[in-house]
User: Fold these one by one.
Assistant:
Number 1:
Amino acid sequence: MNIILLGAPGSGKGTQAENIRERLNIPVISTGAILREAAAERTESGLKAKEYMDRGELVPDEIVIGVIKERIAKPDCEAGFILDGFPRTMAQAEYIDEAGVRIDLVIDIYVSDGKITERMGGRRMCPSCGATYHLRHRPSHRGDICGRCESRLIIRNDDKPEVVLDRLKIYHSQTMPVKDFYSKKGVLKTVEGQDELSETTRLTMETLEEFIASAKK
Ligand code: AMP
């Protein structure tokens, strides 16, 4: 089963992708995480990507498509995968389509812009191991220290308030057409992101189970 999670930055799609992974036992492919890793390793494309990411802009399609192409060709994707943060532009959606990759289900986590800006102020990341936290929704049990590797947590450059507003603008102009594209294909399901994470998780898993039941019929 190939699934896409759509949603504005900060909508919680990464967290829901992990919940779906636990249920279906297929890998989560997060282009953001792969690009951050490449930047930390200082590869050529990683360093180029970092310039865009730090400004809150989208990384050029050819870099991101290259990343996805390589990743979905790996053997662990044979039984399916969950895309978190891809596609974000029509060129990326068309690439997936033209490559003949079947998309079974697209879950869009809808959260208003006002709530997104409020939430993103609380996000923290570990610069060493990449673990993500949220002051309210997913705090580290060690405060501002990573519970996994003990490094001091940071705010990602692209989570800073001025950058968040730019990212939302880009989301509306570039990624909304992607939502329409999958809606027309009849594979889009929208989940309203709730204030309580557990409630968003319940609604997402309900959507997934309904889809699995209908696919079995
Ligand atoms: P994320 O972790 O999904 O919020 O992604 C962080 C940043 O990585 C984004 O703000 C973009 O700069 C870049 N990025 C991730 N996925 C994509 C994509 N599909 N297309 C372009 N840029 C991306």
Number 2:
Amino acid sequence: MGSTALLTVVLAGVLLWIPTIHADNHGAKNDEKHLCICENDKGTCKNETCRGGVCFYTWVQGREERGCFSESIREQCSGSFEGFFVHCCRGHKCNAFVTPPPNNSGEPTTTPPEPPRSELWIAVSLLLLLTTVSVCLVLFLRYRHATCRLRDPEDHDAAMVKVPSGDEPTYGEIFDEFCTSGSGTGLPYLVQRTMARQISLVACVGKGRYGEVWRGTWMGESVAVKIFSSRDEQSWFRETEIYNTVQLRHDNILGFIASDMTSKNSSTQLWLVTHFHELGSLYDFLQYSSLEPESCLKMCLSVACGLVHLHTEIVSSQEKPAIAHRDLKSRNILVKRNGQCCIADLGLAVIHSQSHDYLDVGNNPRVGTKRYMAPEVLDENIRVDVFESYKQTDIWALGLVFWEITRRTIVNGIAEEYRPPFFDLVPSDPSFEEMKKVVCVDQQRPSLHNRLHSHPILSAIVKIMKECWYQNPTARLTALRVKKTLSKLDLDSDYSIEKLKRDI
Ligand code: ADE
């Protein structure tokens, strides 16, 4: 990717930040000398004017903004690159008629007031400083880019990386440029913000209590935008925190791109931007698709791999705490084009590190989905101060997800209709008490069709499910054990296919 393009996104982040500083601070009183023209699409202007120490005009890849900010950050004024232009002035509505220069790299087309000589020197020095920093940044990123590729060659979803045109970066490439080691997490905050604000929403693909999910486009690529309902803002904070502080890039965890919070007409909009998977959730997929046993195995194994990655603490340089999901279900799993799945929605997750000795359960008032709640959650006997307890509830839910997948798997020419777990025992949207009666008091488990026992893969998955559903949470399998058992089946089925081919 062209480093200029990356620089474009970074600097756009810095420039787009300027109006926020103003909006956030509303300027110190002694700063509010000048009445400036205020124009932006974020709804932060009042009567199209604002007051501040400096009036500004920015032009970022065709998007114009006018506003004001405090004297103390006027150094943000210097800068004009290909694709950007920023101009500041002092005086009554002095930013009213500024427009970008024809080649957007020179002086503005209106003549700003002549700056005093000392300020000219400061401006020139700052421009020189900015140029030097930019050159160093480009060289540094090139170096990092090379080392990152060596370190982690499979780190992005190849299906998502396509170059729409010329020198534009894909988000996979932007991640690669910033491919951060050590604390390596999301993109810098300002870059996330800039990317999020360049997204066009195309179609709503999901709606629920949580809010909405949209397909959007960014630089010609599809992205998913989850817009959180205001009552679920704690889930946005938690998911944003986790994606930005934990190294979570994994084939079977939904890929994060950006988080953004905007304020419009005094209401807050919370966005989470992720990879888009056109097959939608596992729940949607199972409504209209049936599977061969090998595809069923591949799906189950991929979910188990995602869960192992979440549950495992890593203590090497690519450090990662252990995470328990707490709301695993088919609606929170997405189906990828390669037949694997990835786990989404970390809004309720708990984080644990043995090496750093902490358990962070967050402060989300939300609870998991009742239908998928483990017996110890329903009878409120779960040990909330022990991290292992949360992993054990994920395993219960994992067994239920496997059950949903196996119902749709064709054995002896038969697949069952899609049904949610306990469909025959509780009504839709069951209450806590209804679930507790079935799962804790009567100790019922989902029923398993006879056909599953006549296929080696399916009968092995049935055995796993049963071991995920022990009443005693400590007796359940671990995610790693589930993964290992399924991996072995995968090898065996590859082996038998190869053997079959040879025999033929
Ligand atoms: N529904 C929820 N999240 C989605 C995503 N990332 N891609 C496609 N559909 C989704």
Number 3:
Amino acid sequence: MQKSILIIYTGGTIGMINIPGKKSLTPFDFEQIRRHVPEIEKFGHRFEAVTIHPVVDSSNIKPDTWVSIAKLIKENYSEYDGFIVLHGTDTMSFSASALSFMLEDLAKPVIFTGAQLPVSTLRSDARENLISSIEIAAADKDGVPMVPEVCIYFEFKLFRGNRTTKHNAEDFNAFLSPNYPTLAESGVHLKYHARRILKKDRDASLKIHTRLDNNIAILKIFPGISEYTLDAILGTKGLKAVILETFGAGNAPTDPWFYEKLKTANDAGIIFLNITQCTQGSVEMGRYETSEHLIKAGILSGFDSTPEAAITKLMFLLGQELSHEEIKLLLNKSLNGEITIS
Ligand code: ASP
């Protein structure tokens, strides 16, 4: 059956070219992607493409781009069966995580993809990534989309977007989903794992949230961290929340000054979320003595959240008209499958 797919192009390596006289790669327009992957016409689907200008290397993605993507999806929601976002890999996990929170009651696929090599190069991974993403965005079972979530498709794997992190700058398999299994894999067949995919209410209509608050900081602790570093971060103008990247299962130094400063800031209204520096596993405060003081200081567990999901979830929650207590309550819940709460 013919499907309608909207491709939203933001930039990234997939569409980059070498401009004569310049050594580095520069993002270029969508038409050259279409030219290099003429196979997409064989699907027989209806494709439209929109470009968010200026096209950027994803290191230049800002929350404004997420708002533009959310608005484009909302405006075109009834007209298309699925959406593909072409995006640089460097910050793709941030964008996919942010969109998973901004698109409430999403019931259609939004598939982020890109490439590690420009589409114009012979060995590019762009073709496979784009073609399989289209197939996934168009896939349905009895008229119901197979994957009604914000995902990343890359190198034969479909991931829940807010579970991903970019872990490899060299290999084609750039992404990991360390704490949640893949939603589908592409081999001879595209194999979907229906039980891992979110179930959505088909009758609810899509709502978008476009207010995000970036008054947050991330503090990665290390042996020997000084009071000055902590003071500098806690003294950030306008600061509302801090993600504490701790050791192992959520542990941190027990020095009295460390505890006192966190407790004082927490009492003054700053929200602290504890996530682990380990790629895999979850924070479990209270398992070791070295995390008991964090509980006493009022710090919340970020469970097995990726840093990308923790940052964008906080930006999203702080941007809503919610009380401090409501935000804390929602941080302890999985909004769109971003954390595992046992
Ligand atoms: N620097 C590029 C970007 O994130 C890398 C890529 O797309 O793979 O835009």
